[in-house]
Amino acid sequence: MQSDLFQDAYMAKAPSAAGMSLQNSKSIKYAVNGECFARQGAMVAFRGNLQFERKGQGVGGYIKRKVTGEGLPLMSVRGQGEAWFAHEAASCFIVDIAPGDALSINGRNVLVFDASLSYDVKVVKGAGMTGGGLFNSVFTGQGKLGVTCEGEPIVIPVTPQAPVYVDTDAVVGWTAQLNTSLHRSQSFGSMLRGGSGEAVQLALEGEGFVIVRPSELVPTGPSST
User: What gap in Å lies between CA 53 and CA 37, rounded to an integer?
Assistant: First the structure.
C-alpha cells in the first residue's frame, strides 16, 4: 500500500531513550519505563505493557478542586511501553524543570509529566476570588512537563522595568517567582458606558516570563475518563 501517510514525518519511531519527546507539534510521546502522570483522557495511542489508572487527589486536593474549580484530573501510566498524548489538536511543548525552578501553569494546559515532579494547586497571589477564581498548579522538582496551548503561544519576558498585563482567560502560565496582582485598565465610569471589554487584567512583575495563548475563549473542561 502506498500513501503520503507513510512519509517519514508521520511515522512513529522506536524510542532512543526512556521519557518524553515530541512526536510532532500536536502530540507528545512518552517511552514509559516505570511511571508517569498524564491528564485524564489525553492518551490517544499506546503499545507495550502499560496500565492506566485514575490518580486520586486525596482529601486536600479534592477540596481544592471543588472550591477553586482548578485541579489536575490525572491518571498514572505504569509499566513498560510507549504512549502518545494529545488534547484537541492543541500545540504541544516540553518544559525541562530544574531544581530551584517553579512554573505556575493553568491545569487545563497540563498534558503529561514525569513522576519526579511535584505540584500543588495554589491561589494566584493578589488576585484571590475577585478574578473569578484565579488558581494555578505550581510545578517544582526536576523533570519534564508536557504542556499544551490552543494555537501558537506568545512568550513575553517580564522585567522589573517592564511588567506585563495579561487577560486572565488567555494566560497559560508564568515563572512562579513573579509577583501577581489584579490591574484595572479602565475606570468605573468607562465600564458603565460600555468600556473596551478589557476591564481587569493579571499584572505580573519581577524577573521571568509569561506564556499567553492567542485566544480569550474559555475552553471546555478536561475529560474525566
Answer: 10
Alpha carbon of residue 160 to chain centroid: 25
SS3 188: helix
* 152 to 92, 124, 128, 184: CA distances (angstroms): 9, 24, 29, 27
**Per-residue model confidence as pLDDT tens digits over 33-92:** 999 999 999 999 999 999 999 876 544 454 444 443 445 688 999 999 999 999 999 999
Task: Give the predicted TM-score (pTM) of the model.
Answer: 0.82
**DSSP-based three-state secondary structure for 6:** helix
The set of cell numbers assigned to 178 is 513573579
Q: Do residues 123 and 69 make contact, with C-beta atoms less than 8 angstroms apart?
A: no
Nearest 5°: the CA angle 117, 55, 47 is: 85
First-to-final CA distance of the chain: 35
